[in-house]
Structure formats: C-alpha cells, structure tokens
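for the record, two folds in this file. i put them one after another cuz i was lazy. first one right below, seq on top, structure tokens after. the second one comes after a little note so u can tell where it starts
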Amino acid sequence: SVIGEDVTIRQWVIDKLPNDQVSIDNALILSNSRRWPLMIDPQVQANKWIRNSKGDSLMVLRLSQGNYARKLEVGISQGFPVLIENVPEVLDPLLEPLLQKAKFKVGNIMMIRLGDSTVEYNENFRLYITTKLPNPHYSPEICVQVTLLNFMVTPDGLQDQMLGLVVAKEEPEVEKKRQNLIVESAESKAQLKEIEDKILELLSNSKGNILDDEELINTLANSKVTSTRIEERVKEQEKTQALVQDTRETYVPVSVRGSAMFFVIADLCKVEPMYQYSLEWFVDIFLLAIKTAEKPERNLQLRLAALQSQFMKLLYEKVCDSLFAKDKLMLSMLLCFKTQEVDNELNQEEKSLLLVGGTSGAEVRPRPHAEWLSDVSWARISELEDLGTGPWPGFSESFKEHIDEWKAVFDSDDPVSAPWPGDLKEAMTPMQRALVLLAVRADSTVQGIQNIIAEKLGAEFLEPPPFNLEKVYGDSNNITPLIFVLSSGADPMAELNKLAMKNNMYETKAAVSLGQGQGPKAEAAIAGGKEAGNWVILQNCHLATSFMPTLEKLVEELDPETVA
C-alpha cells in the first residue's frame, strides 16, 4: 500500500502474477528497482507474468541461442522489453556492461558497449532474466549487479491458483463472474484514479481564483457525476464479490490439500536429484482428478471428498511411476504426514521422534533389570515419557511394572498384533503405536509406519501400482514427452513396438539413436512427427547432452493447436 497502487497490482494479477503477498512484493521491487531483475523461477510463474504483461512487443531469448547477442542489440536500440530465460549459474560476460548499465554519451546519443559492438541505448529498453534452477548459487559479482528475486511458488499463491481451477471446473459460471469482476473492478478503480489525477493536475496548474477557472469547475462537476456512478458500480461489484466468495469458500479444503501436496512432491529432489516435477505437470493431475472423480448428485460434501480422494490416488500413482522401488513407501509416509498436518491431526513432536529415532539427550530414568532391554531401547522409552501428553506421562514406570508382559511382546514373532499390557494399544494412535515399536522392537517400525498410512490414506497406498505403459500413454498428451530412465541392460523398445502396433503407429514411427551429429536428424524427425502426427523415439539421450538444451526448447515450443 506504500509503494504499490491497487490498480497496477490488480492488472498484474489479471496478467497471471500469483495472487500472494510474496509474489506481489517481488513485482513491486522489480518495478521500482534501478537494477535489472534476475528471477529464480522454477515453476515458470514469473516468466508467464512477464510474457502476459509485455505482450507481443516482448523479445524472448536464451543464452544457448547462437544469435541471441544480435537480437539483444535490436532490443536495446529499438527500446523493446527483452526476457532472457533459463539462464545457468554463470552468465555470459557479454551481459556485464548491460547489467552495470554502463551507458555513455556520444554527442547527444546514449550508447552502450555489447561485446565488440557499440549499440545505441533506448531509454524504453527493459531487461528481465529468469532461471529455472530452484536453488542457484550466483557469484557475489552477479548478485550486486542485479535485483535477485525469488518467485518460487508459495502455499498461498498455489492455493489461490488451485481454488480458481477447481471452481472453474465445478462452478464455471461463478468463476467466470469472478474473473469479470476482477477486470471490471480494476477498470473502475483505474477510472477513479484517472479522474483524481486530472483534478489534481488542473488544481496545480490553476492560476488566480479557482472559482473563475471554467475548465476546472466543469471537470469537477463532470467528475462528481462520473465518480458517483463508478462508486455505485463498485458497491454492486463488492456485493457480487461477496456472493462469489461464499461459493468459492466451499472448495477451499480441496485447494488447501492440493497445494500442500505439491510441496511434498517438490521436496523429493532432496532425496534424488532426478525426482523433479513441474507445477504444470502437477496441475494436469489435479485437473484429471476433477474430471475423473465420482460425481454424487446434489451432495457437495461427498463430491469434495471424492475430489480429494481421487487426487491423492492419481498423484500417488503418477509419482510412483517415476520413483525407485526403495522410495515408494517413503512417498506414502510423506503424503500421509502432510495430510494429517492439513487435517490438524499430526503431533509434530511425535513425528520428529519417530523420524530421528530418539536417544537425543532425553533424561534417562533408572533402567529396570532386564537383559533383553538394551540401553538404546530404554533411552527411547524415557524420551516417550518426556513428551508429557496423551498416553506418555508415567509410561516408563508402567513399563517397569509390566516388564514381563513387554518381554512377551519383544519375543513375539509379530509384535504389532501381539497383545500389549493393559488397554494401551487400543488407547494409542497408530503414530504412538509406531513409537512404542521403535523403542521395543525397532525391526517392526516399518510395519508400524505402514499401519499409520493404511489408517489415514488406505491400504492401496502401501501397494505401488505396477508400471503400465498403456495406461501412461493413455494419460499423456501430444506436447508432453514420456521419458524413460533406464538401468543398464534395460530396453523398453519391445514394449514400445507392441504399443505402436496396437495404435497403428508401428510403420510410421521415427526412431533416432542420438550421438555425435545426430541432433539435426532428431530435429527433422520431430518436425515431421509434428506435421504428420507420428511417434518420435529418441534413444541414448545420455550420449547427446549438448543437444538437450535444443531438445528442451523444441518441447517447450510444442503447441497443442499446431501439433497433429
């Protein structure tokens, strides 16, 4: 509210700037900063906003393009806005004078040096730089030359986007009304601002008695009528906005859960760098869930439950397709914990204790005389008592009193199903039972975690679906490639040929084995496939790493309207 105007911010949101405080603050910094912005933009949100707000005049370049310097010179001299996208951690030294704004005058003309050439500098020129790297490390020299902005998606921004998607599909009239309201409201506020500015300008330029200034008096009279009409319209819009908001509120639980799950998936890259998922891919799954979820007639609550359930199921299946087998249970556990957190059912202290395994500085109480009970197990039991809530107060004393019964649990082949002293097991949550298993029989902890998942999400989240190429193909589209990450010796060609025969693509498919000098062949195959609607199979991509940036650009430029 200090450096931003409502009218401008509304226009930014219309141009697809995420509607959350962080993104709006970033946009305000960008518009007021004297240095060119370098935006960390892994979900391509800033990129879309810049493209929408600048329109057709925007020049989009990449450092990997051979002729990008020549195009940049044109942008600088003609005063066009230029977006350099997908930059790596090291920028081209050619950009340094531009980042430093090292302009100089030759006669009356402002010039700037770009590499070996000197270019006329047009003051209307604007430069925007984005990177897809989620956590880049730029050198201090670069950081002091640019305004570094983090446009990573935020929970609030994503929640707003997902709410818009689900309402647009479920209540299209309501969402259409909301979009129109945003535009109309922005126009009304802009008109009011224009009137205020005009009056202030006339007042400041007025000489002598303002009552004698006919233009000013007429403008004031006209503006009074116009502003009254606009204010009435704004009041009507606000009433409609309240009704629209009430309808949207009913879908908030779906968007909250959906938004939370994205951050679980986004963090998987910390486990394995290959596990990287785009926001666009995530949104496609969300839309598929809306399309395929059960639609009970005239029962909104059942529909909301079906939407959440279907989305979780699809997300689990899709992510499992791209995970190593060893990480699939971890995914189920993370989804389960995040769902419990969203539903306010998760005890963070218990979760932390389960994940770190205890024995981290708890007050260890006097240990009972039992050879089977190790020091580590007793330290964990002491830590459970330190939690101090639920079944834990007095837990270590109770354990001592029933030491023989706990020994029976320890000796049991199935400690999860074996009877526990008193009604302890029945009184505990699955998380608390898993903590006891961790302390008494650590080898059964995995089973305890599986019980947590089964109770919250269902048993199907413990059985990863087998890979089904036909199903994956059925869910794919003509602008998103399927990428096979293969272990040595594996070859999916037999499966692909089988699927190609089934879809009448066997004769027309193009297969290119990448390697030195095969890039142009691959480009020609993709161009032919786009026109004729054929399959293109690129093999041995790891042998052509230099071709990958070109391939990435080709894939990003695929348009569903023009691809056959």
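(here's the note) second protein begins now
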Amino acid sequence: SSSSSSSFSSSSSPPPLQPPRWYGGGLQFGCTRCGRCCVGPRPVWANFSECATISKNIGIDPKAFVEEFTQAREEREGVDGFVLRKVSGPDGLERCIFLMEGEEGGEEEGGGGGGGLEGGPDPEARRSTCRIHNHCPTACRTYPFWPSALVSEYEWRAEATRCEGIAIAGTTFGQAPARGVPVVPSEEVERDLAVHMVHSSGGGYAYGESIELLAEVDEEVVADMVDEFHRANETALLFETKDLRVLDHKNDRSESTRSLTFKSNEALSQTEVVIDPLTGVPDFTKLPMPIHKAMAVVASGFAMAHVVSETRTSAEVCIVGAGTGALPMFLPRVGEVALDVVAVESDEDVLRAGVDYFWLPEYAPASERERENPESPGKNGNPRFVHAEGSAFLGGRSGAGKVPGFDVIVVDAYSEGLAPPKGLHDFSTFKSALNKDGKGCVIVNLIGPASWKSEMTKSANDAFEKVFLVAIENKMRHGNAHLLVCYSSPAAPSTSASTSTPSSDFTERANVTRMALGEYERNVILRKASGSRHLSSLIKDESWEMTWAQTTMA
C-alpha cells in the first residue's frame, strides 16, 4: 500500500535515545506454556553446576546425562559447560530435548521464568511442559528478561512476537494493564537481567545460587552493572509512520546500525545498514544481516561463475523488494564484476524513508515507457530504484517483443507472514523475466510455515531445471533463514556426474547425493565470490554460515 510522501517529515536532529530505565513501570509477562521459547535454534548453555543439578533430579549419572542430553561442550569466560541437545519436533522444527507436549487443560508449569499463567489465551488448548522446569538452566529461568530483549521497548516489542506471554500494556507503555497478565516490577526485571549477564559471561553458579549471591552484594553493584549495559546498548526512534519505524542501534561491540522494521512484525528487520562512525552515513560496503550476506554472495558469485566472460563484462541484476536499499547499494560496490542493478519496491513509504534516512538516490515510477526501454544504471554507479509492483514489473520483462531480461533476479519481498508473498510467487514469471541466452539465476527469500516452504519448493522445481535449498545460520542472533536458488537451463551444470534419482526420492542415499551436489555448487559460488574484497569479507565473517542442498536431481 502507498501513501503520500508528504506524511514524511525530517527533523533537524533525531529524538533523544531511550532512557536507561524505559521499563520503570514494570513489564507484563506470564508464562502461558506455549513452548515457543523452547523451539528454534537459540542454544541453551548450562554450566557444570546446572548439569549436575539436572542429572541428579532426573535420576541419571552426570556422564550419561552429558552423552544423552547435551550436544556440545562449550567454555564461556573460562567456565566449562554444555549446550543442551535439540531434537526435531512433530512440526519439523528444532526444540529442546526436555520440551514435552502437555495435557489439554493441564496445570503443570511450562518453560520461562513466569511459571503457569492463569487465564491464558486458550485454557483448553494443548500446553507444553518442561521436563526439568523446577531446575532448568539460568537462561530458561530468566527468560524473557534477556539483555537482547531489554535494550529498549522496541526489542521488547519484537520479543513479544515470539512469546505469547508478553503483553505490550501497562504503565510502561502508557496503557491500562492487560487483564490476567502479571506485572513484573522493574527491580525483578533487573535482577534477572543481571543474573543472565553473569551467567552468559561464564558464571559458574546455578540460578538460585546467583540470586543468593546478588542478595549479598551492595545494591549499587547490580545497579552499576545494569547502567553499564544500557550505556553500551541503546536504541533510538528516528522516524515512524503508522506502519513502519526507522531505528538507530548502538551495541556493546561498538557498532552502530540503522534499521527499518514493520509494526506488523517487529521481530523482522526489513533493512539494516552499518553507520560509519566518522561520517554518520551508511557504509554500503557492509551488510549486517546474514540473509543479505547470503544473497549478495550468491548473486555475485553466480554472475562471476556463469555470466561474465571474455566477451561480456557485466551482469544485469533485479532486486524485487528492495526496501531501503542495503543489498541494492552493496552489489554495485562488489568490484570484481560490474553489476547493473535495478531495485524495485512496491511501498512508496519505504522508498521515501530510504531517501530521507538511508541516503538512497531518488526513485522513479515504473511507467509503461520506462518498462519498455532498458534501464540505464543509476548515477555514480548506484542502482536505479523503481516504485512498482514486483509482479507487474517482472511481467513487463517477459514475452515476445519485451526488453531484455535479467541475469539474476532476487525476490526479497514479504507480506502477511510469507516470503515470497502471495501475488509474487509465480516461478514461471520469474523464469520468463530472465535473459533468453539460457543462463540465469533466481534467488528467493523463503519465510513461512513448512507447508508454504514445501509448496514454493515444488513450484520452483516445476519451473526450473536446477533448484537448491540454502539454509543460512545466524550465529549471533541464533536464527535460521532459507533461500531457494533456482538455475535456468543450461546454467553451468554444477557437476559432471549425474544421477537418475527422481526428485520425489528422499531415501538416505538420495539425500546424501542432494547435499553433495549442493555443496559442490556452494563451493563454486564461494570460490568465485572470494575474488572480491568486499565479498571475501562477508564469506570470512564467522557470525553466519550457509549450507546448500539440491532439491532437483539431474
């Protein structure tokens, strides 16, 4: 949806940063036993003391506990411990090995620091149960009052999208308290924050021991610890409309970033850029989001491996869902290959925010005349930004008599919990918008339930001769993302060896083959991309990692 750009107004200076105690009125939280905090890739670390307590209470030898219930030994600040094992749940998602399905209408306590919440959202719904709830590790006992969720109200709002026990209400938010949800006083919030900080930095105590220790020290020690946390980690609201926010972030790694988020899903940043501390403007040679790092490496690596040759020195790239421009502004700066980028965004408010707050060049409407003629690169090597619906824009690139297509198309659009969104998920249209020389790549961000991801993978397989599922692990924020990477035929076969195994064959042998084929092409892409200084920096960044599996078989 679009609105008049007159709704945007820039002030001469941004509003002040959030006050250190933004949660002074307390925070409303009560565990509903939804179990969502126990599902997903976030690791749970337990020190030796906690492991000993858990093994004793479940009646198992400590050595046997480590072998059966942990998956890695990890040292933090000189303190040994273990990461609890993850298993695959009925929904296919990773979950803690101690999470169990509760009984309908049951009264056992679930995970999280708040215990059971009376009057949850659905008393008759099946609730989850933690097998070790009464002696779980500190990370579980202090949730959701983790440092990552308490930087400002905006991080807390984002955590609320993951935890149904959090209510964005009460005096802290200038609202009446939500009925039936306990108010946790700020003193208790900060107590758990301090305990979590001590534990995550290598504290060798169990939760109860940490509480006793903090009770014995001067209150000013705890206050100073929390003060230092808020001084090192700040978030400022720079601009907002009814649908989106632009936020400035400072963290304890001395890195400042700027992000755009939609209020409909505050846990997802649509765009994030690194702010140069000397100039105060975005550094477009860096990409802080792992999903954008992976897209940049794949798009550029494909162009270098399969498009550029002695007779051709550049590649045409289209990004649908350009947002406020982090990826489109990065790609022309790759250096080792000339990438002419057209960036398409359907939301004019987003483009206006990009111009006003992310130093983007002005954008142009996609008139019929402009769609019928090849777009020239933007000024000074920047991409050309176009305000248009993605499906209509790509449709103008397909069919007889239309303008030449693209070598690489990146679809990074999201709506109503799905990527690609409904209305922009026709893989045949994507393929038709590619160049007609037979070499092209479509990269699609994949978000949604397992059924949607399966449907999109099948659609990709129906349209393209070669499709890879790429998993991107974010090691800093402990999350995973997925891409579909689709090659049009005959786009550089990834291996001389072929197999007649059909795509519906999911035997162990076939899956091993898929992983091997995917890994081969991944290495081809990484080897080519490593020739660029900026791409090489992304590849060497240990905060993320990607694995490939081929979903179609030659």
